[in-house]
Every structure is written in C-alpha cells, then in structure tokens.
Amino acid sequence: MTGMSVSDYEQMIRRTRARRMKWWREARFGMFIHWGLYSQLGRNEWVMNLERIPVREYERLACTWRPRPRAAREWARLAREAGMKYMVMTTKHHEGFLLWDSKMTDYNAVQRGPGRDLVREYVEACREFGLRVGFYYSLMDWHHPDGARCAFDQKARERFLAFTKGCVRELMANYGRIDILWYDVAWPLRSAEEWDSLAMNRMVRELQPDIIINNRSLLPEDFGTPEEHVTAAERGRDWEACMTFNGSWGWQEAPPEDWRGVRQILEMLRTCCSGQGNLLLNIGPLPDGSVPKLAAERLRAVGRWLKTYGGVVYGKVDRTDKIVSALGNFSRKGRKYFFWCSRWPGRELAIGALTGRMEKARLYPNGPDLSFTQVRDRLVVSGLPEKCPDKISGVGIIEMTFRSPPRQVFSAGCVTIPSPAPRLSGKWLSPAVDEWRVSRLMMKKNGIEKAPAVSLCEPLGWSVVSAGDPQHFINVHSLYGDTDGLVYLANKFKTPRSGSWTLCVGHDGGIRVFVDRKPAFCEPQLKNPAVPGRSMFDVKLQRGTHEVVIALDTCKGMGWGIFFNWGIPEVERKKKRLFPQLAK
Description:
The chain has helices at residues 6-27, 38-41, 47-50, 55-59, 61-64, 71-81, 118-128, 154-173, 192-195, 197-207, 262-274, 293-309, 477-480; strands at residues 29-33, 86-92, 132-138, 180-184, 212-213, 240-243, 278-283, 328-333, 336-341, 348-352, 354-355, 358-363, 369-375, 378-382, 396-402, 407-408, 435-441, 463-466, 474-475, 486-495, 499-507, 511-515, 518-523, 535-541, 544-553, 561-567, 581-582. It is α+β, with helices and mostly antiparallel strands.
C-alpha cells in the first residue's frame, strides 16, 4: 500500500465500516474519562495552559500523584450500572503525561508518582465488566520540547511526529484488542498532511484491524465528534456527541445546579437516538480516582431508567424528524415512534399540526393499548395515568405506531402585520430581517433571566440561518432547539443617522436583547409571532454600525423562532424614512 492516497485509504476503510461500526451503532451510550495530573489541582484540565504553569513546576505533580488501586474498576462498574456500553479514557491529555508504561519518555505513570500502568488497569476493568475499550490520545503536547516548535522547525517536526507515532504504536500493540481510538486537538500542525495522519492511521489499522477512529486527526475517518452540543451530522455520517457533566472535563468542584440532571441526560440521549448518534458522557474522577458523588448518583438513576426503557435506545434506531411539542419529543425504530414525555400531561397527550395516520398507541414498555383520536391535524392520546409512571426521572415513554410517517406542518397564517401596535403603523415598519448568525450557549439555570451575559468574543461556532418560510419566520428549533438552552442570534446593522429606533420582535419563547453587548430589553414570556402584539422597545443609536444579539429561550416556546423588524418611533417620523441596514 506504499504511496496510498487519502481517497484510496478512505475507500479501503469504507468497505469494512459497516462491520466494524455495528456494535458502536447499537451501543448508543458511553463513558468518557478525563484523569491526569491536572486532577490534583482541580481547576480544569487546561490549568497548565490557562495559568501558564512552567513545565518544570508542573512536572512536580507527577511525583505527588498517588491514585488508589483499582479505581478503574469503580468507573467500569458504574458505567455498566448506568447502561453504558463502552468507555474512552485519556491515555495522554494536553499536559503530556503518559498514563502507561512507555519507552518513548520517562514522563509516565510507571516511572513517576503512581508507579503503575494506569492504562492497563483501565483496560482490564473494561473487560471485566463487559465494556468496549476506547483510548483517547491528545496530539497536542505542552510538555514535549518540540510540541510547539514543530510548527516552524522541520527537524523538530520530524522528532515530534516520531514521538507521536511511537506513543500511538505502543497503545495499539501492547493492550490486546482496542475498539476506539479517540484523537484530540491536532495543534499546532494544521493539516492531516503535516501530521502524517494517513501513515499513522494506516499503522493503527494494521495493528488493530477492527478499530474505529474519530475525525480529530484531520482525516474524516469513521465518525464525527460534536463537542458540548448535541447536533446530528449529515445523513450517512456517524457521529458521537461528547458532553461534560458540569462544564469541566477534568475534576473541578461545581455547585449542584451546574451538574447535568437525569432528565437533561435523558434528553441528550433521546436527541442522539433520533439522529442516529451516540452520547459520550464525561466524568472527571478525583485525584485518587473516586467518582464525584453527584455524577455517580445521577448515572445510576439513568441506568435504572434504561433498565425499563432501554429498548428504545439500544440497537438499530432510525433518524427522526423533530416534532415540536412543549411536553417532549420522539425517537424511532421503523414504524414505531417513541414519545419521550419529559413533562407529563396528565391523562391526555395532544400534539398539533401532525400528519400521518396512527395505527395504535400504548404506554411503553408493556402497558395496555391507549385510545386516541385524530381530527384533521390534531392527535390526542387518552387513557394515560395521571402521573408519570417513572418516578426516577419523570420521563415516561408512549409508543405510537404509524401507518405512514408523521410530519409536522405548521401554518401560521398571514403574518404581514399592517399595524403591529397602535404607536407604529405599517408605513413606519421596515422589511423583515431574514438572515442571522446563530449559535447556542447552554444555560446554567432555568429561565432567561438567569442566563449568562453574552460575550461575542467567545468561539460560539456561529452558523447562518435564514427565514424558513415566505412569512419571514426565522426558524431555529430544528437545528438548535433540541436540548434545554439559549439560542443566540446576532446581526450587525448600519444606522443611517443618529436618533431613536424601535425594535419589533415576535418570538416563540422568552427573549433578552443586547445592543452593542449591553442588555437592552428582557421579555420572559413568548409573544406569538403570528399575531399582532410583538415585543417593541425603543433604543437610541448613533449613526454607524451596531451589533444586535437576541437570546431566545428555547425552554419556553413552541416553534422556537423569531420575526424581526425595525420601526421608527413617532417622535422621529418627521425625518426621512430610512431604516438600519445589514452591515457586512
């Protein structure tokens, strides 16, 4: 295979992908472990970089780390109790400390403080509890002398790549069958060619023919890895959402409200199921290897839920179009749709704007058939228990079998509002703004009033979203509304003159508006965009460019979207009718 091209390599691994990925596609739920020297400091796994700790000072942590024996068995037992099917552990994080017995450097767990091969202990624990084995390996290395120099020094690059390939070879050759190789942070080199990823991954596959590899060596490989957001990849592409438990990958103290609750974990899992993806949920063990109490309690609760409802999670699942409901959402296996009801409705469940004929309904997993009616586009399932049958999480499942695939089509009616408010006639209302940048930050507490202040300096991963229908409704729920949180929409406008302007926003959820990064308006209740009565407020702006950000609370809406227009207040109407325009 000398001289193999990337396209030839991708074609080669594509031929075996279905066989190699079969177990992973049916596993659905895994445990991520971030554990290293940084765990002793308890200030985030990036502490060495964030606090600019010198290498020699940081190295002392390698001598003081004394994890207790058999900690990995505790993780593996917990993973099995939680209903997880595989694990991925950091063998080397960005700090550069190796958790295995390596010949590449003495900066490792056997020759320093622990005095033990922590990777071997982890592998043995996984196998004891029937879990698939995954290795995380950070390509970035803050400790290696060539870890940064390799970006501009060819000799340094050759040395660093030899070190990297040597480390990966040891991991692949010395621990029996390895199921997953999970690369991370391909920095400072900028391409797969610079990392020589093709040669490295060919070596991996020669040593481990059945392994699956993620996409972070800058080759597409077997699956994508959205981080801290649950967003399905394009159809035909496998994906796995990796999520923290409390906002930090490594061990760090956090108040109880910052830890993901059972219901939130289940909603992430449902979103993964509906998009044919996996959930890799992280815990950061304490320095001694023990699992944080809150994480253990909540994972066991998830496991108890999965003992009853796991049939909707494990095995082959199908992609599911999102159904808008204030009560929950669907996953699917063939013609069977499973409504994960996270806000129990009482004795009746109603879903609007739903097409597709239903054949039967029952309370999953073994409840009796439920009665239902479908009149036009309204489905009502009746005969439910008054309270959710699941007392652990409050999430129950209603199984529905459809003769034809259900689709949801909202017809909002005409939303061209000639007079949205008495003080603003249509003459003084601008055309709708139809295109925004959109991103999401997770809320730490429920309610838009307690949302963190927006900082547009953060790397939020902005995308572009446009009006989803002829009535200028900016629909964001289908891409960004699948977990509890805020959706941020941003735009820059040029104002033609100094003076007052009216912002008119119709919104399917509470909003908070920031103008030039300062809070300008808060309305926690939804203002139905399809009828007159939008939220309206005046702002004074100088001539020039201004930034408007709308934080939309997807917890409190039905359709999760906005309309937006500029208006001219009455006091300004004697001037020429010019509206702010989008700034490039």
